[in-house]
Write a structure and sequence with these properties.
heterodimer; A: 223 residues; mainly alpha; 10 helices; 0% strand; B: 331 residues; alpha/beta; six-stranded mixed beta sheet
């Protein structure tokens, strides 16, 4: 019994868990890279045009705000199926890791943009006035003052987003994205194989904790 | 140097500044006093264009602030330094980086920046903290860094918005001393906004008291304190000294010109009357101090005392029991 358990364990580890862990990591990394790139840009625009921002704009801000709210109001599973036509246009298919990255990174963009916006808007108003008082322009205020002052905040936003979107990749797995989510559902839950199910969950537990640990360390370092 | 004419500003239909007229001389240390919400900080921010105003004009060293476009405004602001109540430093970066920030925004050469930072940290007296992070400093030290940063562009004017309000009394005094030194040595015109009369008294030559968006009183600090206009009394609040209801109460004011003379004892001896001292106070100004005594006496001596005080050129006020003062004499 014990011998066969370990046999199974290593068999699953080698055949299922390790490859799907890589798949999950690839999806999460791709999602975070795209989400950060677009989310950062969007956050800067939101900060600039926010009614309390550097250059309030009553036309552009509501449009950006509407986009962020709309994307954020879709549960991730629904977003994945809802924008599958768009995914097919971009990737050519709706199945697989690449296809999962499209909806995930759109969701991550909105998520990260909103959190970063909150973080940037929170920077002390007098600090921004001080920057204006020595003649800094808006771009300089954003890059030399606001972003610099919010580095710890940015780190915790990235940590939080990474944890959230590691979890989201497993949901994408349920609708053809592959990775640990797909393995734990198909090979674990639906095949009544608890070993696989809990192995997959344990790897996710490790990934999330490791991310949080690194995030906390960096936060302390840059505070 | 700075000429403000009929300046008006409103926030969401609420008129904050209702026609300010003011001239500030070059090299002056000028104070705006007033309670919170009287528009003094707004007025200060209009001077360097951080706040826009609806009508009127501000002319700073021949530049009409209201007419500047975005780019000219930024260049203009190089001439006006500003410091704030909560110091407005980037807390995560070093003192050096904080002071260098304006020069980096204006793309100065690295060598010029290094030299200027050292020079200014010397002026404000925190050279040894150059590589410390801003958040490791005490309040007084932070304000010194902020002053150094405000001086990087060689401004002609330095605006101080409640710059000492977050500091303890000792740091407050050291910052005031520093501002006075900067004013004298670098010839920078300084405008101080504060709700603390003590700060304005020890730092400023001239002050204006704002109330409900207009200037209620204006003049040299000593004159304002001698005249005690209503705006000053509103600002300082009723001290609530309870005075005897019988007899007459008057307040005598002594400045450094007559402080040393034994007026009070002479008054008693010469007129051969008795009176009691029922209150006293003293105020220190930048280069003057005023001591006041409130004396109470029988009403029948009023004429003699009045004559004696006027002959000796003593400034005095009559005070009734409710502590409302009436100015009877101007020196």
């Amino acid at each position: 019994m014990t011998a066969s358990f370990f046999e199974d364990f290593f068999y699953y580890l080698d055949r299922l868990i390790i490859p799907s862990t890589y798949a999950t990591l690839r999806m999460a990394t791709g999602t975070m890279l795209l989400g950060l790139a677009f989310g950062f840009g969007l956050a800067i625009l939101l900060t600039l045009y926010n009614p309390n921002g550097l250059k309030p704009n009553k036309k552009i801000y509501p449009i950006l705000n509407f986009f962020v709210n709309t994307v954020r109001s879709f549960p991730i599973l629904i977003l994945i199926v809802a924008i599958s036509p768009l995914t097919r246009q971009i990737i050519g298919t709706t199945i697989g890791e690449m296809a999962a990255i499209v909806p995930l990174s759109i969701a991550a963009t909105a998520f990260i943009a909103r959190l970063l916006e909150n973080c940037f808007i929170d920077v002390d108003k007098q600090l921004i006035e001080a920057a204006r008082s020595f003649g800094a322009n808006n771009v300089q205020i954003i890059f030399r003052v606001i972003i610099r002052e919010s580095v710890p905040g940015i780190i915790s936003v990235i940590t939080m987003a990474t944890v959230t979107y590691i979890a989201a990749t497993t949901i994408a797995g349920a609708v053809g994205g592959g990775g640990l989510g797909a393995v734990s559902l198909t090979y674990g839950f639906q095949s009544f194989n608890n070993t696989v199910l809990y192995m997959a969950v344990f790897v996710l537990f490790l990934l999330v904790n490791l991310t949080q640990y690194i995030g906390d360390k960096l936060y302390k370092k840059f505070q | 140097m700075i000429e403000i004419k009929n300046l008006k500003k409103a926030y969401n239909n609420e008129q904050v500044l209702k026609g300010i007229n003011l001239t500030i001389k070059k090299g002056d240390i000028f104070g705006f006093a007033g309670r919170s919400g009287t528009g003094k900080s707004t007025l200060l921010r209009c001077i360097n264009g951080i706040e826009h105003f609806e009508s009127g004009s501000i002319i700073v060293d021949k530049v009409d602030v209201g007419t500047l476009d975005d780019k000219k405004m930024r260049t203009f602001r190089k001439d006006i330094g500003m410091i704030f109540q909560n110091f407005s430093l980037l807390n995560r970066i070093s003192v050096y980086e904080n002071v260098a920030l304006p020069m980096k925004c204006w793309h100065y050469d690295k060598k010029v920046i290094d030299k200027k930072v050292d020079e200014l940290l010397e002026v404000v007296g925190i050279k040894e903290k150059k590589y410390c992070k801003a958040r490791e400093l005490s309040g007084g030290q932070k304000q010194r860094v902020a002053i150094a940063r405000a001086l990087t562009m060689n401004p002609k004017v330095l605006l101080c918005d409640e710059a000492t309000s977050a500091l303890d009394p000792k740091s407050t005094q050291s910052i005031i001393d520093l501002l006075i030194r900067i004013n004298k040595e670098l010839g920078i015109t300084i405008i101080i906004v504060s709700h603390e009369m003590g700060v304005l008294r020890s730092a400023c030559e001239n002050i204006a008291i704002l109330e409900n968006g207009i200037i209620e009183a204006q003049g040299t600090v000593a004159k304002i304190f001698k005249d005690k206009p209503e705006a000053l009394i509103n600002l300082l609040g009723d001290k609530g000294v309870s005075l005897p209801e019988e007899g007459k109460n008057i307040e005598l004011l002594f400045s450094k010109y007559n402080n040393n003379e034994p007026i009070i004892s002479r008054l008693a001896r010469k007129l051969d009357i008795d009176f009691s001292v029922v209150g006293s106070d003293s105020h220190n100004f930048r280069d003057e101090s005023i001591t006041s005594y409130i004396i109470n006496f029988d009403i029948k001596h009023m004429k003699d005392i009045e004559k004696f005080l006027d002959e000796n050129n003593i400034l005095w006020h009559e005070i009734d029991g409710n502590n409302n003062m009436e100015v009877n004499n101007d020196c």
